[in-house]
Amino acid sequence: MKKISNIITVIALIVIIALIGGVSYGYYRKSTLEVKNPIVTMEVENFGTIKIELYPDMAPQAVSNFVALAKNNFYDGLKFHRVVEDFMIQGGDSKGDGSGSPKLSDLGIEVSEEEDREYCIEGEFLSNKNNNNTLKHKEGIISMARGDYTSYSPALTTESYNSAGSQFFIMTKDNPALDGLYTAFGKVIDGMDVVHKIEKVEVKANSEQTENGENQEENSEEQAEKSTPVNDVIISKVTVETHGVDYGLPKTLEPWSYYDWVYQTYGIDLRSYQQ
Asked: pTM score > 0.90 for this model?
């Protein structure tokens, strides 16, 4: 009986050691398993392919927004509508002139035509009380374009900071003046030569200045006056490899409305004058 008892004890010890080892290995594997960041492949007609690595740990809302829009083919056929040499190239606007905004349906959300609406997302940068994003606006960084409504009132910083939608820009040169003021969320890892080729296209003065400077980055007046490509630079296809990770959908916000602001501030309904 004593011999059998010893055998049972040994077996029990082996089982316990195996369980401990299995749990320890599980924790080790989980801690050392590297989750690959999503990789964007952006094909630009007549120019080539740009590959971009996105950083969800830095800007999760911007990444989930971009991934969802790309997966629903939102960017296919749009263009780089704003090009400023030694600064950046900007695209992703549904209207192609810097005034467009995405809608909920563009994210793949099933909504009726009546319920569908434009949206924006939260700015993930230091000035908007987000300390997690440490990306700097260096050459090759991709960042979210947004509006600036402070010309109407200096108090409209929050509305400006949280006004990004679908438009993005890729830095062609370091610009620390943008750090902490725009949501940087990725970096070009291949095809920077393509970015620089786009940067060199012939540009002309804008036919229309974007209302309120919406979705325009901080830049000198002289540069902003001549930034529309003479010949369209078309983004033919955008795909994203997420390596099996589901980045979900971004938290959407209601866009700031100039008309609502004027009515709330001055009691004037400008819409009535347009009828």
From this structure: no
